[in-house]
Amino acid sequence: MPFDGVVTKSIVKELSEILCGGRIEKIFQPEADEILLNIRARGQNFKLLASASANYPRIHLTNLQRENPAVAPAFCMLLRKHLSGGKIIHVGFHDYERIVTVEVESVNDIGDLTVKKLVVEIMGRHSNIILVSDRDKIMDSIKHVDSAVSSVREVMPGRPYVPPPLQNKTSPEFLDPDKLIAAAATEDESTSIENYLLGHIKGFSPLLCREICFRSDLDGKAPVSRLSDKEAARLKKVLSDFILGIKNCEFQPCILYEDQSRKKPADFHCIKILKSGMAEYKASISGVVDEFYYEKDRSERLKQKKADLLKVLNNNMDRCNKKLAIQQDVLREVADREKLQLYGELITANIYSIPRGSGKVFLLNYYSEDGELVDIPLDPQLSPQGNAQKYFKQYAKAKNTFLYTSRQKEETSKEINYLESVLHLLENCTSLQEIDEVRQELMDQGYLSPRKKKAGKKLEKVSSPLHFKSKDGLDILVGKNNKQNELLTLKLASSNDIWLHTRNIPGSHVIIKKTDRGIPDTTLVQAAIIAAYYSKARLSANVPVDYTAVKNVKKPGGAKPGMVIYENFKTLTVTPDESLVNTLKVDE
User: Which CATH number applies to 306-450?
Assistant: First the structure.
């Protein structure tokens, strides 16, 4: 994980400089595994977040607001009892372990000053937050670990606090790069340079090991035992400089992004990372950690909130596809219905020449130009007239089945198109509010049971369409869900604005706001590229995009949200371009 021992040192240094001498004013527990301390220090208010989340354990200052439960959990109440009003006298850690100890001086029940410790253990799924007394006894923890869970180390009230077992690695404070590299020659062939560094230096993460190999101009995946003398010398030099910088606290907090758009953070650290060309440096390590985990947490929450809607949509898509397959089978079964009518008419025309009790008859098809004979099966139990009536009835039934099933098939196809559009728009949602709007749409359409409205809860304002500005200076608006598509096209846009949508492909409605000087071709092409990008064909090339005046777009009666028909349109063929879309987007 990014939060390694070196980051822990950087965080502790920053917290110690800012919070020591400060007083804890309020304590909250917004999540089951997370606490938030409001601290007044150096004439300012600070929020210290500590999380024992299995996925994102951490401790840092934060600026983000968090919603607190109406009733505080028991652990939160215990912290309030023993730490509220207390003064932070020390923030420390030991030997590059990811364990941060916040020492708080407070008055106990009999009026004596005591020092209690809030210990934050950042160890993946074993992370914990523990309140320890002045006698090093566990008062309570945010996660209880009894003997049934761990036979090595219990974390239960009343037990002595024992730190987690130490790693069998060398601390950077005592590392001798010469000895470390010299010992590498005896390593197994399967041990890479990166893994060798990771397995022997305490507090180092895979990111730091990769960075050291990069600065040493070495392939980190290569066997460490095969280092040449020149390679070993380069590695020693870089490692020595690295260790010296860590000892001297020469930190440069940074966030590393996945791509040039800098929307998705991939990693972070307190050391300058040269290997990544997409790093953004900040003054505070807390600011870096706060932003990184906010984006990670937001993405996780978006993913979780989308999950149940995706399940509903996929289940209904499966239902519709099964229904469509059955309807297609039925239509294939009645595809030769006209033949039944022909049999009835030929039997009627030759009724007096057909012997009673015949099993079949060959009759001239006088409807055909070729005048061929038709082999018609007969029921020997019926008269010729009865056989004719039987075929007419079968034809009438097949015709009705065809008409009814065709209508059903058309409705099923429309429903599939609608669900595909909602599915695509849901995947593009970037905020909880947008997901809630899709959820409400599914409730309105009967795919989800309506939720009970909480008394006194105000309705949230509807989110705004995406806003772009073409290189010619014209406004381009993009709907983010079907209700927004409908509002944008049928209410907000004027009749002479230009409407764009990918042909027969689920996607967003796009509007170009027309001005007195008209709409240049460059703007039209850019809007088409935006329409293609915000469609299911985002990763395709040569995407057809239809465009027409808004006045030519209509919503049929009874159609689902976002479903429209249009006429008098033209088509552009474009390829989605993410860099252009990001360039034209207006941040609001």
Answer: 1.10.287
Question: What is the C-alpha separation between 172 and 179, in angstroms, rounded?
Answer: 13
Residue ranges of the domains in the chain?
A: 5-141, 172-281, 306-450, 466-584
> Would you call 586 helix, strand, or coil by DSSP?
coil
**Averaged pLDDT for residues 233-258:** 92
Instruction: List, in sequence order, every beta strand (DSSP E) within 206-325.
Output: 254-257, 265-269, 279-281
Average pLDDT estimate for 309-330 = 95
**Cα dihedral 431/432/437/441 (nearest 10):** 110
Determine the pLDDT at residue 455.
47
Per-residue confidence band for 259, with pLDDT thresholds at 50, 70 and 90: confident
Partners of 250 in the β-ladder:
none
Cα torsion 520, 524, 526, 531 to 10°: value is 160
pLDDT in tens, 35-71: 999 999 999 999 999 999 888 899 999 998 877 888 8
The topology (CATH level 3) of 172-281 is Helicase, Ruva Protein; domain 3 (1.10.8)
| pLDDT tens-digit map of 330-370 | 999 999 999 999 999 999 999 989 998 999 999 988 888 88
CA distances to 243, 255, 268 from 286, rounded to whole Å, are: 22, 11, 11
Say how far apart CA 385 and CA 381 lie, in whole Å.
Answer: 12
Name residues whose C-beta falls within 8 Å of residue 215's C-beta, 6 or more positions apart in sequence: 238, 242, 274
Angle (nearest 5°) at CA 230 between 226 and 231: 50
Q: What φ, ψ does residue 47 adopt, rounded to 5°?
A: -120, 120
Question: Residue 169 pLDDT > 70, yes or no?
Answer: yes
Residue 318 reports pLDDT greater than 90? yes
CATH topology of domain 5-141: ibrinogen binding protein from staphylococcus aureus fold (2.30.310)
Q: How far apart are the first and last CA of the chain?
A: 33
Determine contact, residues 392/341, Cβ cutoff 8 Å: yes
Specify whether the CB–CB gap between 282 and 255 falls below 8 A: yes
